[in-house]
Amino acid sequence: xxxxxxxxxGTKLSFRALSIRFCINCLSIKNSSSFKLILLLLMCxxxxxxxxxANNDWLxxxxxxxxxxxxxxxxxxxxxxxxxxxxxxxxxGDVLMYLARSGTFDELNGFPKLGRIRIHLTPxxxxxxxxxxxxxxxxxGCVEINGDRFGTSASIIVWVDVHxxxxxxxxxxxxxxxxxxxxxxxxxxxxxxxxxxxxxCRSWLGAPQKAILDKDNVSFVADNxxxxxxxxNRNVNTSxxxxxxxxxLDSVKNKLFNPLHNLVFGGLVKGRNMVADSLTKGxxxxxxxxxxxxxxxVPDTRHTAEIVLYTAAVDSVYKWEDGLAxxxxxxxxxxKHARRQTLDWWEDFWDRSYIRxxxxxxxxxxxxxxxxxxxxxxxxxxxxxxxxxxxxxxxxGLFTFDPEYVExxxxxxxxxxxxxxxxxxxxxxxxxxxxxLKSGDFELMKS
Length: 447
Description:
single chain, 20 strands, 3-stranded antiparallel beta sheet, alpha+beta
Protein backbone atom coordinates (compact mmCIF):
# COMPACT_ATOMS: atom_id res chain seq x y z
CA UNK A 1 0.00 0.00 0.00
CA UNK A 2 1.28 3.46 -0.89
CA UNK A 3 0.04 6.52 1.03
CA UNK A 4 0.02 9.82 -0.86
CA UNK A 5 -0.77 13.24 0.62
CA UNK A 6 -1.52 16.12 -1.71
CA UNK A 7 -2.24 19.81 -1.36
CA UNK A 8 -3.25 22.17 -4.14
CA UNK A 9 -5.02 25.53 -4.23
CA GLY A 10 -5.40 25.75 -0.47
CA THR A 11 -7.04 22.30 -0.05
CA LYS A 12 -5.17 19.54 1.71
CA LEU A 13 -6.11 16.06 0.57
CA SER A 14 -4.91 12.62 1.53
CA PHE A 15 -5.90 9.38 -0.16
CA ARG A 16 -4.73 5.82 -0.03
CA ALA A 17 -4.14 4.45 -3.52
CA LEU A 18 -5.20 0.85 -4.02
CA SER A 19 -1.66 0.00 -5.07
CA ILE A 20 1.12 1.19 -7.33
CA ARG A 21 0.29 -1.74 -9.56
CA PHE A 22 -3.23 -0.36 -10.04
CA CYS A 23 -1.83 2.99 -11.17
CA ILE A 24 0.57 1.31 -13.59
CA ASN A 25 -2.28 -0.74 -15.02
CA CYS A 26 -4.25 2.47 -15.53
CA LEU A 27 -1.46 3.78 -17.70
CA SER A 28 -1.97 0.87 -20.09
CA ILE A 29 -5.59 1.88 -20.82
CA LYS A 30 -5.71 3.05 -24.41
CA ASN A 31 -8.90 5.07 -24.05
CA SER A 32 -7.69 8.35 -22.52
CA SER A 33 -11.25 9.35 -21.53
CA SER A 34 -11.64 6.20 -19.47
CA PHE A 35 -8.26 6.78 -17.86
CA LYS A 36 -9.19 10.32 -16.85
CA LEU A 37 -12.56 9.16 -15.50
CA ILE A 38 -10.94 6.48 -13.32
CA LEU A 39 -8.44 8.96 -11.89
CA LEU A 40 -11.17 11.52 -11.25
CA LEU A 41 -13.33 9.00 -9.41
CA LEU A 42 -10.35 7.81 -7.39
CA MET A 43 -9.43 11.35 -6.36
CA CYS A 44 -13.03 12.18 -5.41
CA UNK A 45 -13.57 8.93 -3.51
CA UNK A 46 -10.44 9.10 -1.37
CA UNK A 47 -9.85 12.84 -1.41
CA UNK A 48 -13.23 13.81 0.06
CA UNK A 49 -13.32 11.01 2.60
CA UNK A 50 -9.96 11.69 4.28
CA UNK A 51 -9.44 15.43 4.63
CA UNK A 52 -6.34 16.14 6.74
CA UNK A 53 -4.34 19.16 7.83
CA ALA A 54 -0.62 19.19 8.58
CA ASN A 55 2.22 21.49 9.55
CA ASN A 56 5.47 21.81 7.66
CA ASP A 57 7.28 19.61 10.17
CA TRP A 58 6.56 16.77 7.75
CA LEU A 59 9.58 18.01 5.78
CA UNK A 60 11.97 16.76 8.47
CA UNK A 61 11.98 13.20 7.15
CA UNK A 62 12.83 14.44 3.65
CA UNK A 63 15.94 16.40 4.69
CA UNK A 64 19.23 15.15 3.26
CA UNK A 65 21.84 14.42 5.93
CA UNK A 66 25.40 13.15 5.45
CA UNK A 67 27.51 11.67 8.21
CA UNK A 68 30.87 12.05 6.46
CA UNK A 69 32.59 14.85 4.50
CA UNK A 70 32.66 14.94 0.70
CA UNK A 71 35.40 13.81 -1.65
CA UNK A 72 34.97 16.78 -3.98
CA UNK A 73 32.47 19.31 -5.36
CA UNK A 74 30.60 16.48 -7.10
CA UNK A 75 29.30 15.62 -3.62
CA UNK A 76 27.90 19.09 -2.82
CA UNK A 77 24.53 20.21 -1.46
CA UNK A 78 22.30 22.88 -3.00
CA UNK A 79 21.53 25.97 -0.94
CA UNK A 80 19.96 29.24 -2.01
CA UNK A 81 17.17 31.76 -2.08
CA UNK A 82 15.84 34.69 -4.10
CA UNK A 83 18.00 34.27 -7.21
CA UNK A 84 21.19 32.85 -5.66
CA UNK A 85 22.42 29.26 -5.70
CA UNK A 86 25.30 27.71 -3.75
CA UNK A 87 27.01 24.34 -3.92
CA UNK A 88 28.10 23.55 -0.35
CA UNK A 89 30.42 20.76 0.72
CA UNK A 90 33.15 19.90 3.28
CA UNK A 91 36.48 18.59 1.98
CA UNK A 92 39.72 17.96 3.88
CA GLY A 93 38.44 19.89 6.88
CA ASP A 94 37.37 23.01 4.92
CA VAL A 95 33.84 24.17 4.13
CA LEU A 96 33.58 25.20 0.48
CA MET A 97 30.87 26.66 -1.69
CA TYR A 98 30.43 27.84 -5.26
CA LEU A 99 28.49 31.08 -5.81
CA ALA A 100 26.00 31.50 -8.66
CA ARG A 101 23.32 34.05 -9.45
CA SER A 102 20.67 34.32 -12.13
CA GLY A 103 21.45 36.69 -15.02
CA THR A 104 25.24 36.96 -14.68
CA PHE A 105 26.20 36.49 -18.34
CA ASP A 106 29.69 37.44 -19.49
CA GLU A 107 30.62 39.01 -22.85
CA LEU A 108 30.80 35.57 -24.49
CA ASN A 109 27.29 34.79 -23.19
CA GLY A 110 28.72 32.29 -20.73
CA PHE A 111 27.09 31.84 -17.31
CA PRO A 112 30.06 31.73 -14.91
CA LYS A 113 30.22 31.07 -11.20
CA LEU A 114 30.90 34.18 -9.14
CA GLY A 115 33.75 32.44 -7.36
CA ARG A 116 34.32 29.96 -4.56
CA ILE A 117 34.32 30.50 -0.78
CA ARG A 118 36.49 28.46 1.59
CA ILE A 119 36.07 28.48 5.40
CA HIS A 120 38.81 27.14 7.70
CA LEU A 121 38.63 26.99 11.50
CA THR A 122 41.49 26.55 13.99
CA PRO A 123 41.15 24.33 15.96
CA UNK A 124 39.33 22.41 13.24
CA UNK A 125 36.38 20.20 14.25
CA UNK A 126 35.86 19.06 10.65
CA UNK A 127 39.21 17.30 10.16
CA UNK A 128 39.46 13.57 9.61
CA UNK A 129 38.40 11.56 12.63
CA UNK A 130 35.76 14.01 13.81
CA UNK A 131 32.09 13.41 14.47
CA UNK A 132 30.41 15.00 11.47
CA UNK A 133 27.04 15.85 9.96
CA UNK A 134 25.89 18.02 7.04
CA UNK A 135 22.18 18.57 6.58
CA UNK A 136 20.07 20.23 3.92
CA UNK A 137 17.23 21.69 6.01
CA UNK A 138 14.44 22.08 3.50
CA UNK A 139 11.97 23.77 5.83
CA UNK A 140 14.46 26.50 6.79
CA GLY A 141 16.15 26.75 3.38
CA CYS A 142 19.69 26.33 4.73
CA VAL A 143 22.64 23.94 5.07
CA GLU A 144 23.72 23.04 8.60
CA ILE A 145 27.24 21.64 9.20
CA ASN A 146 28.31 20.25 12.58
CA GLY A 147 31.59 18.74 13.72
CA ASP A 148 33.18 17.57 16.97
CA ARG A 149 36.82 16.58 17.40
CA PHE A 150 38.58 15.95 20.70
CA GLY A 151 35.81 17.77 22.57
CA THR A 152 35.85 20.89 20.39
CA SER A 153 32.60 21.31 18.48
CA ALA A 154 31.48 23.83 15.88
CA SER A 155 28.44 24.60 13.79
CA ILE A 156 28.23 26.48 10.49
CA ILE A 157 24.87 27.53 9.06
CA VAL A 158 24.78 28.70 5.44
CA TRP A 159 21.65 30.52 4.27
CA VAL A 160 20.59 33.09 1.68
CA ASP A 161 18.30 36.05 2.21
CA VAL A 162 15.30 35.47 -0.08
CA HIS A 163 14.50 39.20 -0.37
CA UNK A 164 18.03 40.62 -0.75
CA UNK A 165 21.11 39.26 -2.61
CA UNK A 166 23.01 38.36 0.56
CA UNK A 167 24.65 35.06 1.56
CA UNK A 168 25.02 34.56 5.31
CA UNK A 169 27.65 32.44 7.09
CA UNK A 170 26.95 31.89 10.80
CA UNK A 171 29.77 30.15 12.68
CA UNK A 172 29.67 29.11 16.34
CA UNK A 173 31.99 26.88 18.38
CA UNK A 174 32.27 25.51 21.91
CA UNK A 175 35.79 26.93 22.30
CA UNK A 176 37.32 30.08 20.86
CA UNK A 177 38.45 29.49 17.30
CA UNK A 178 40.23 31.40 14.57
CA UNK A 179 38.27 31.72 11.33
CA UNK A 180 39.74 32.28 7.86
CA UNK A 181 37.41 32.96 4.93
CA UNK A 182 39.00 32.82 1.48
CA UNK A 183 37.48 34.08 -1.75
CA UNK A 184 38.86 31.99 -4.63
CA UNK A 185 38.85 33.04 -8.29
CA UNK A 186 40.21 31.27 -11.40
CA UNK A 187 39.70 34.10 -13.95
CA UNK A 188 42.70 36.31 -13.25
CA UNK A 189 43.90 36.45 -16.84
CA UNK A 190 42.06 37.15 -20.07
CA UNK A 191 42.07 33.99 -22.15
CA UNK A 192 40.97 32.45 -25.42
CA UNK A 193 38.50 29.60 -25.06
CA UNK A 194 39.43 26.29 -26.62
CA UNK A 195 36.98 24.38 -28.80
CA UNK A 196 36.26 22.06 -25.87
CA UNK A 197 35.26 25.06 -23.72
CA UNK A 198 32.97 26.75 -26.24
CA UNK A 199 29.97 24.60 -25.39
CA UNK A 200 29.65 26.84 -22.31
CA CYS A 201 28.79 29.75 -24.66
CA ARG A 202 27.38 28.02 -27.72
CA SER A 203 27.24 31.06 -30.00
CA TRP A 204 30.98 30.61 -30.52
CA LEU A 205 30.83 27.02 -31.77
CA GLY A 206 32.22 27.19 -35.31
CA ALA A 207 32.53 30.98 -35.21
CA PRO A 208 35.33 32.54 -37.35
CA GLN A 209 36.36 34.93 -34.54
CA LYS A 210 38.34 34.02 -31.45
CA ALA A 211 36.39 33.66 -28.21
CA ILE A 212 38.29 35.90 -25.79
CA LEU A 213 37.06 36.04 -22.19
CA ASP A 214 38.09 39.08 -20.15
CA LYS A 215 39.50 38.63 -16.66
CA ASP A 216 37.77 39.40 -13.36
CA ASN A 217 38.83 42.08 -10.89
CA VAL A 218 39.48 41.19 -7.23
CA SER A 219 41.00 43.31 -4.46
CA PHE A 220 40.99 44.03 -0.74
CA VAL A 221 38.91 47.13 0.05
CA ALA A 222 37.39 49.04 2.98
CA ASP A 223 40.71 49.50 4.78
CA ASN A 224 41.53 45.84 4.11
CA UNK A 225 38.38 44.67 5.90
CA UNK A 226 36.58 43.22 2.85
CA UNK A 227 37.11 41.61 -0.57
CA UNK A 228 35.62 43.19 -3.69
CA UNK A 229 35.17 41.06 -6.82
CA UNK A 230 33.45 41.72 -10.14
CA UNK A 231 33.38 41.00 -13.88
CA UNK A 232 32.83 43.93 -16.26
CA ASN A 233 31.65 43.01 -19.73
CA ARG A 234 33.44 44.75 -22.58
CA ASN A 235 31.16 46.17 -25.26
CA VAL A 236 33.02 45.00 -28.38
CA ASN A 237 33.48 41.53 -29.87
CA THR A 238 30.74 40.08 -27.68
CA SER A 239 28.32 37.26 -28.44
CA UNK A 240 25.73 39.88 -29.31
CA UNK A 241 28.03 41.40 -31.96
CA UNK A 242 28.85 37.95 -33.30
CA UNK A 243 25.24 36.86 -33.73
CA UNK A 244 24.03 40.17 -35.17
CA UNK A 245 26.72 39.98 -37.85
CA UNK A 246 26.10 36.31 -38.57
CA UNK A 247 22.35 36.94 -38.96
CA UNK A 248 22.87 39.99 -41.22
CA LEU A 249 21.14 42.38 -38.80
CA ASP A 250 23.73 45.17 -38.69
CA SER A 251 21.30 47.68 -40.23
CA VAL A 252 18.99 47.38 -37.19
CA LYS A 253 21.60 46.60 -34.55
CA ASN A 254 20.95 49.76 -32.54
CA LYS A 255 17.26 48.80 -32.24
CA LEU A 256 17.93 45.35 -30.77
CA PHE A 257 17.99 44.56 -27.06
CA ASN A 258 21.54 43.71 -25.95
CA PRO A 259 21.45 41.98 -22.53
CA LEU A 260 25.27 41.92 -22.33
CA HIS A 261 25.83 45.67 -22.84
CA ASN A 262 27.52 47.40 -19.89
CA LEU A 263 26.76 44.43 -17.61
CA VAL A 264 28.79 44.26 -14.38
CA PHE A 265 28.30 41.53 -11.76
CA GLY A 266 30.07 40.50 -8.58
CA GLY A 267 29.98 41.41 -4.92
CA LEU A 268 31.69 41.94 -1.59
CA VAL A 269 32.87 39.49 1.09
CA LYS A 270 32.97 40.88 4.62
CA GLY A 271 33.05 39.46 8.12
CA ARG A 272 32.48 40.75 11.63
CA ASN A 273 35.87 41.61 13.17
CA MET A 274 37.72 40.20 10.14
CA VAL A 275 40.66 41.76 8.29
CA ALA A 276 42.75 40.99 5.21
CA ASP A 277 45.32 38.29 5.82
CA SER A 278 47.16 37.25 2.65
CA LEU A 279 46.96 36.02 -0.92
CA THR A 280 47.25 32.36 -1.78
CA LYS A 281 47.09 30.21 -4.89
CA GLY A 282 46.46 26.59 -5.68
CA UNK A 283 44.69 24.13 -7.96
CA UNK A 284 41.23 22.69 -7.40
CA UNK A 285 40.23 19.81 -9.67
CA UNK A 286 42.23 20.82 -12.77
CA UNK A 287 41.77 24.58 -12.44
CA UNK A 288 44.44 26.94 -10.99
CA UNK A 289 43.09 29.70 -8.76
CA UNK A 290 44.07 32.68 -6.63
CA UNK A 291 42.67 33.25 -3.16
CA UNK A 292 42.12 36.38 -1.02
CA UNK A 293 41.96 35.66 2.74
CA UNK A 294 40.04 37.38 5.52
CA UNK A 295 41.04 36.38 9.05
CA UNK A 296 39.33 36.97 12.40
CA UNK A 297 41.09 39.65 14.45
CA VAL A 298 41.00 37.45 17.55
CA PRO A 299 39.76 33.91 18.28
CA ASP A 300 36.11 33.84 19.30
CA THR A 301 33.21 31.43 19.83
CA ARG A 302 31.14 33.24 17.19
CA HIS A 303 31.97 34.49 13.71
CA THR A 304 29.62 35.87 11.08
CA ALA A 305 30.24 36.84 7.48
CA GLU A 306 28.20 37.96 4.50
CA ILE A 307 28.68 37.88 0.74
CA VAL A 308 26.65 40.73 -0.79
CA LEU A 309 26.03 40.41 -4.54
CA TYR A 310 25.09 43.04 -7.10
CA THR A 311 24.39 42.97 -10.85
CA ALA A 312 23.67 46.03 -13.01
CA ALA A 313 23.99 47.41 -16.54
CA VAL A 314 26.00 50.60 -15.97
CA ASP A 315 28.50 52.59 -18.02
CA SER A 316 31.18 52.63 -15.32
CA VAL A 317 32.43 50.48 -12.46
CA TYR A 318 32.00 53.46 -10.13
CA LYS A 319 28.25 53.41 -10.71
CA TRP A 320 28.23 49.66 -10.08
CA GLU A 321 30.10 50.23 -6.81
CA ASP A 322 27.52 52.86 -5.82
CA GLY A 323 24.77 50.33 -6.42
CA LEU A 324 26.62 47.70 -4.42
CA ALA A 325 27.02 50.17 -1.56
CA UNK A 326 23.25 50.82 -1.53
CA UNK A 327 22.58 47.08 -1.55
CA UNK A 328 24.99 46.68 1.37
CA UNK A 329 23.31 49.51 3.27
CA UNK A 330 19.87 47.95 2.71
CA UNK A 331 21.19 44.59 3.93
CA UNK A 332 22.61 46.19 7.08
CA UNK A 333 19.36 48.03 7.82
CA UNK A 334 17.32 44.85 7.48
CA UNK A 335 19.81 42.42 8.97
CA LYS A 336 17.87 42.05 12.23
CA HIS A 337 14.73 40.76 10.50
CA ALA A 338 16.24 39.09 7.40
CA ARG A 339 16.36 35.58 8.86
CA ARG A 340 12.77 35.71 10.12
CA GLN A 341 11.52 37.04 6.78
CA THR A 342 13.39 34.31 4.92
CA LEU A 343 11.99 31.58 7.19
CA ASP A 344 8.49 32.94 6.66
CA TRP A 345 8.96 32.85 2.88
CA TRP A 346 10.06 29.20 2.92
CA GLU A 347 7.18 28.32 5.26
CA ASP A 348 4.68 29.81 2.79
CA PHE A 349 6.48 28.11 -0.10
CA TRP A 350 6.18 24.65 1.43
CA ASP A 351 2.59 25.18 2.56
CA ARG A 352 1.46 26.32 -0.88
CA SER A 353 1.31 22.80 -2.28
CA TYR A 354 2.91 19.44 -1.73
CA ILE A 355 3.09 15.81 -2.72
CA ARG A 356 4.04 13.43 0.09
CA UNK A 357 4.47 9.71 -0.45
CA UNK A 358 4.86 7.28 2.46
CA UNK A 359 5.95 10.13 4.73
CA UNK A 360 5.34 8.03 7.87
CA UNK A 361 7.48 5.18 6.55
CA UNK A 362 10.77 6.81 5.55
CA UNK A 363 12.43 3.68 4.22
CA UNK A 364 15.16 5.27 2.09
CA UNK A 365 15.43 2.08 0.02
CA UNK A 366 11.76 2.20 -1.00
CA UNK A 367 11.15 3.66 -4.46
CA UNK A 368 7.85 5.44 -3.61
CA UNK A 369 9.46 7.26 -0.68
CA UNK A 370 12.50 8.17 -2.82
CA UNK A 371 10.17 9.70 -5.41
CA UNK A 372 8.55 11.80 -2.68
CA UNK A 373 11.87 13.04 -1.33
CA UNK A 374 13.30 13.78 -4.79
CA UNK A 375 10.24 15.89 -5.52
CA UNK A 376 10.86 18.04 -2.43
CA UNK A 377 14.58 18.51 -3.18
CA UNK A 378 13.95 19.38 -6.83
CA UNK A 379 11.24 21.88 -5.94
CA UNK A 380 13.55 23.42 -3.35
CA UNK A 381 16.21 24.01 -6.02
CA UNK A 382 13.65 25.73 -8.24
CA UNK A 383 12.61 27.86 -5.25
CA UNK A 384 16.18 29.15 -5.01
CA UNK A 385 15.55 31.14 -8.22
CA UNK A 386 12.11 32.47 -7.34
CA UNK A 387 13.04 36.06 -8.19
CA UNK A 388 15.69 35.70 -10.88
CA UNK A 389 15.76 37.93 -13.94
CA UNK A 390 16.24 34.81 -16.06
CA UNK A 391 14.68 31.33 -15.90
CA UNK A 392 16.36 28.42 -14.15
CA UNK A 393 18.35 26.64 -16.83
CA UNK A 394 17.12 23.12 -17.51
CA UNK A 395 20.61 21.59 -17.30
CA UNK A 396 21.76 22.18 -13.75
CA GLY A 397 20.10 25.46 -12.84
CA LEU A 398 22.33 27.36 -10.40
CA PHE A 399 24.00 24.20 -9.10
CA THR A 400 26.60 22.96 -11.59
CA PHE A 401 30.14 22.04 -10.48
CA ASP A 402 33.54 20.98 -11.87
CA PRO A 403 32.77 18.97 -15.03
CA GLU A 404 35.53 16.41 -14.51
CA TYR A 405 33.53 14.94 -11.64
CA VAL A 406 30.88 14.07 -14.24
CA GLU A 407 33.16 13.10 -17.15
CA UNK A 408 36.77 12.50 -16.17
CA UNK A 409 38.17 13.73 -19.50
CA UNK A 410 36.53 17.17 -19.17
CA UNK A 411 39.15 19.34 -17.45
CA UNK A 412 37.33 22.64 -17.91
CA UNK A 413 36.72 25.19 -15.16
CA UNK A 414 33.68 25.18 -12.82
CA UNK A 415 32.05 27.67 -15.24
CA UNK A 416 31.56 24.96 -17.86
CA UNK A 417 28.32 23.25 -18.70
CA UNK A 418 27.06 21.77 -21.94
CA UNK A 419 24.38 23.89 -23.63
CA UNK A 420 25.69 26.65 -21.41
CA UNK A 421 25.34 30.39 -21.11
CA UNK A 422 22.30 32.24 -22.39
CA UNK A 423 21.21 29.40 -24.69
CA UNK A 424 17.67 28.36 -23.77
CA UNK A 425 16.15 25.45 -25.67
CA UNK A 426 12.35 25.54 -25.51
CA UNK A 427 11.80 21.81 -25.69
CA UNK A 428 13.88 21.29 -22.54
CA UNK A 429 13.12 24.54 -20.72
CA UNK A 430 9.38 23.90 -20.70
CA UNK A 431 9.92 20.72 -18.67
CA UNK A 432 11.15 22.89 -15.79
CA UNK A 433 8.43 25.55 -15.86
CA UNK A 434 5.25 23.91 -17.11
CA UNK A 435 4.73 21.85 -13.88
CA UNK A 436 4.75 25.08 -11.83
CA LEU A 437 1.16 25.69 -12.96
CA LYS A 438 0.16 22.54 -11.05
CA SER A 439 2.23 23.28 -7.95
CA GLY A 440 0.97 26.86 -7.72
CA ASP A 441 4.49 28.32 -7.91
CA PHE A 442 3.36 31.22 -10.06
CA GLU A 443 5.89 33.75 -8.73
CA LEU A 444 8.69 31.41 -9.85
CA MET A 445 7.37 31.62 -13.43
CA LYS A 446 7.73 35.40 -13.81
CA SER A 447 11.32 35.26 -15.05
